[in-house]
Design a protein that fits this description.
The chain is α/β, with parallel strands linked by helices. It has three domains: 186 residues, Periplasmic binding protein-like II (D-Maltodextrin-Binding Protein, domain 2, 3-Layer(aba) Sandwich); 128 residues, Periplasmic binding protein-like II (D-Maltodextrin-Binding Protein, domain 2, 3-Layer(aba) Sandwich), CATH 3.40.190.10; 42 residues, no CATH class. The chain is built from twelve helices and ten strands. Strands 1, 2, 3, 4, 5, 6, 7, 8, 9 and 10 form a ten-stranded mixed sheet that branches. Helix 10 packs parallel to helix 11. It is globular.
Amino acid sequence: MKWASLPLLALVLSLSSWDRTVSQTLPPHEQIRQRVNDNVLFLMGGQPGATFSQLAHDISVVVEDGKNLRVLPVVGGAAVQNVEDVLYLRNIDMALTTQEAMNYLKATGELGPHLEQQLTYIATLFPNPLQILAREGAKTITDLSGKKVNFNNKGSATAQFVPKIFKTLGVDVQEFYMAQGDAMEKLQRGEIDATICSCPTPVPAFANVKPEWDLRFVTVPYEKSIQATYLPASISKEDYPALVDKEVETIAAITVLVSYNWPKDSARYKRTAKFVDAFFSKFDEFHKPPRHPLWKVVNLGASIPGWTRFPAAEEWLKNWRAGQAKGQEAEFKQFMSGQTANQSTEQTDQLFREFMIWRSKGR
């Protein structure tokens, strides 16, 4: 055949040229349809009014670049459901989930084997403090033993994982599952004793609590039995001015922005890579009002053991770190040149290596 005699590179170039020709010969409205779809990504957030939805909205606003890039937030379910949607729901490109949900699904194999090969993460984002709002009298999680406790709606990360935390800490309770709005009504009437959300602060339903309702957050100890999955955290007066006088110690899971592990030569990969560049490059914009205050605590370079970062994100961070190191080296050498005229190049280089090791250890 004629094609078989062409070198592989010529074949690729010919197909690429053919694609462009076909695109250019499409009717105008079809060209617009193709352009719009080539530059739009769908981000699975959370329930209406929930923090995940607010954060997804922030992302869509910051990275928006007219006709070149748009991110459309989608009302989502919760951490576990969002992972399933990224893997199997048509047109969903990215989602907000939690590290505990990722590890759980990887361990159980509920979504099939080798999940870590299909799911990648773009960045770790915010802590999700375990927020236990209880009636007056309860001060710690152990005070809820035997009480009626709501673990948010079925399917949520709270419902999926927090009962296991209670059992690990030896706290047996009567479990209820309902949305936070319904739980707040029952909490005020004394029909339940506490309601819980493992999610970013502030939870909208909690933020509306009035001091006269006599509700308080209870502490959760950072026991060794839960340290492999959770981090120490706190709930502050800044989070809930009407509820907190001094910081309440608790634990936290981590929110993660994830994507399917698309082949590098696919259109879906290229769209996601375009998003990655905009998301990282414009990250300072997330620190400005009216963006959510949680963006200020994000460490984009943090990694997740056992999982792979989306390749375009890994490459962006690698280049950024190289630029940072080069700038630091230049500044260091400029500083050293003013210290002594007798310092050799070799001595300066050695001192800089020692400086970088010292700096990497947190000074």
